[in-house]
Automatic annotation (TrEMBL):
It catalyses: a 2,3-saturated acyl-[ACP] + NADP(+) = a (2E)-enoyl-[ACP] + NADPH + H(+). Residues 11-323 form the Enoyl reductase (ER) domain. Its EC number is 1.3.1.104. Keywords: Fatty acid biosynthesis, Fatty acid metabolism, Lipid biosynthesis, Lipid metabolism, NADP, Oxidoreductase, Transit peptide. InterPro entries: ADH-like_C (IPR013149), ADH-like_N (IPR013154), ER (IPR020843), GroES-like_sf (IPR011032), Mito_Enoyl-ACP_Reductase (IPR051034), NAD(P)-bd_dom_sf (IPR036291). It comes from Rhizobium helianthi. It is an enzyme of class 1 (oxidoreductase). Transmembrane segments: none annotated. Belongs to the zinc-containing alcohol dehydrogenase family. Quinone oxidoreductase subfamily. Pfam families: ADH_N, ADH_zinc_N. This is enoyl-[acyl-carrier-protein] reductase.
Amino acid sequence: MRSLIYSQFGKPAEVLRVEERDVPQPGKGEVRLRMLLSPIHNHDLLTVSGQYGYKPPLPAGAGSEGVGIVDALGEGVDHLNVGQRIALSGLKAAWADYAIGKGSSAVPLPDSIDDETAAQLIAMPLSGLKLLEFTGISEGEWLIQNAANGAVGKVVAQLAKPRGVHVINLVRRADAIAEMEELGIDNVISTESDGWKDEVKALTGGAPIAVGVDGVGGDASGDLLSLLGEGGQLISFGVMSGEPMRISAADVIFKQAVVKGFWLAKLMEAMQPDEMRRLVGELVAGAASGDLRLQVDQVFPLADAASAMEAAGAKGRKGKVLLKLS
């Protein structure tokens, strides 16, 4: 079978190669998928470049999520059927014709969810949903987030709405406002414009902002903290700028603010199966009803993986870049 393999860490478009590998065999509790589509996430790119929270032994297969058809079942997997279409995150080497994952993590899909949505339904949406609950924010309160047009930001904005949480969505380019509005997301402000902080204050009508969600780092972290009310939380879940958080000690001290990090992988280590089922069930229901919409920017064949990696790392994307597999 074909698989995207890297033998050294580096720029994904340069170090990834399509190589022939044996079809993997599912072990106890595992399932093998004939892969259909797989998204290119930022954490996938960071893993290949050697900049993520862990480094796999090399050579390694790349990719971590996707949608596919159940091709084989390992011992003890009796809740799935061969031929069933499922979504699965935490896959081993997802960018391949076949991939292995945990049977307990498999998500059967209704026909109402298309493949492009299913391919990216778990990792980023689950991060967004768990992040929203992690904040502890209540109905009627205000949350502000930067990188709002990223995959997690869009999920946070869409899922906060039915909870009665008010969200201010900061983007770094004016044309992203229309992109967000296509999804029914409002309160979108471009930080390119002068006086954008005044726009934020006008939207809240003077109400305090309880939570800031920072996916950028650098000066953007301090900007969010400066807008929070007393006792507000600044939550870091990403560093798109590649720069350390720069925040005001005065804001932390005099607002009695709390700064903390969010990493879904760490939280999942302690997550009980019932909670996971509840979270994933909400995502599936939202995608099936159309309340949760996930955008796709481009789809590339596996043979054109280098172009796909470049597109996934480019600025101004409207949605996920996907790899079309077998």
